[in-house]
Amino acid sequence: MPNPTPLHTLATERGQSIWLDYISRDLMTSGDLHRMVTREGLRGMTSNPSIFDKAISAGHIYDDALLAEYRRDPEQTPQELFFSLAVDDICDAADHFAEVYRDNARHDGFVSLEVSPDIADDTDATVNEAQALHARVNRANLMIKVPATRAGLQAIRHLTEAGISVNVTLLFSVQRYVDVVEAYLDGLEARLAEGLPLDGISSVASFFISRVDTLLDGELAALSDPAANSLLGRCAIANAQLAYAHFMDIVASPRWQALAAAGANPQRLLWASTSTKNPDYPPLLYVDGLIGAQTVNTLPPATYEAFLKRGEVPPAALPGDVEAARADIASLGELGIDLEAATDRLERDGVAAFADAFHHLLATIEERLEHIKAEA
């Protein structure tokens, strides 16, 4: 075994896994992903439309594959071409994590692929596309990402019942997280009632962090109130603490214990959007402040490198002072800030941002293909 890194320490001594919030074909072909998995202790990977947009739009590393895929089937739409490229990347990445998946009782080693953001409010379309992508990738360590919209809740239940591992994304509010947990448990119970196995299913609930502070800090700063200023940079972690408290309640419940006895895996909280957007905040604020057992933190490359290079692994921060977290969230209401309205807005904005990135990606593919064909 290679020398332990902070990622190894975090997993073995704190019970938290680090996944990478990034994918690009050159990460696999260069050997960088192999190093990160085998030597540094990386335990999974997430992707989304914005990440693929950046990967495919930057440079020309996908040009040959794009032309080859077009020649294979010239009738493909830009969206079909994208998913062909994405599925190849996801399959390659999943194979890199296959040993992690096997060695960790199928709790880690997952790679996530998201359904089209345009169908976030359509349950049937989400289920159909998720099933099709799951079949195309055909890897046990695939997670299909489904946005935690109201339509997404029913999709999560159906997909879990069907035996598909789901990464529930774009979660901002504790109440919506409660709803997501219910959807997961309902899906497991329906599957159990059919006499189907539960041990091959895993799930994470991706709870977004920094975007909460970015929005609320602006509203707090506008109040010019000492009580408001004291909450700057604290609300996102307090919000996450309350979500984690609910997770702890669930795994201690008789309902969960019955499912666990039947082989079910808990739906771990995954901390997403954990790079700090405010330069005045410590770069690892949303890493150090969210260390806790049975959780995942998915880090973009810069945050990943910063955590790896620092070397030190702080003590667990969760569950933390839950009552203090409740008081911080209650203080928002006392100051006239509606947290529910804020998280609803963040969900809408998040879906819209991914849709915009997806449309930009498809336009880029179309333009790039025309350019490649002209030069071929």
Automatic annotation (TrEMBL):
Pathway listed: Carbohydrate degradation; pentose phosphate pathway; D-glyceraldehyde 3-phosphate and beta-D-fructose 6-phosphate from D-ribose 5-phosphate and D-xylulose 5-phosphate (non-oxidative stage): step 2/3
Keyword Transferase found: yes
Reactions catalysed according to its record: D-sedoheptulose 7-phosphate + D-glyceraldehyde 3-phosphate = D-erythrose 4-phosphate + beta-D-fructose 6-phosphate
GO cellular component, one term: cytoplasm
Any GO MF annotation of the entry: transaldolase activity
Localization per record: Cytoplasm
InterPro entries reported for this sequence: Aldolase_TIM, TAL/FSA, Transaldolase_2, Transaldolase_AS
Uppermost EC category: transferase
Matching CDD domains: Transaldolase_like
Residues at the active site: K145
Entry-linked Pfam families: TAL_FSA
Record key words, sorted: Cytoplasm, Pentose shunt, Schiff base, Transferase
Biological function: Transaldolase is important for the balance of metabolites in the pentose-phosphate pathway.
Family classification: Belongs to the transaldolase family. Type 2 subfamily.
Family matches, as PANTHER family: TRANSALDOLASE
Record-given protein name: Transaldolase
Gene: tal
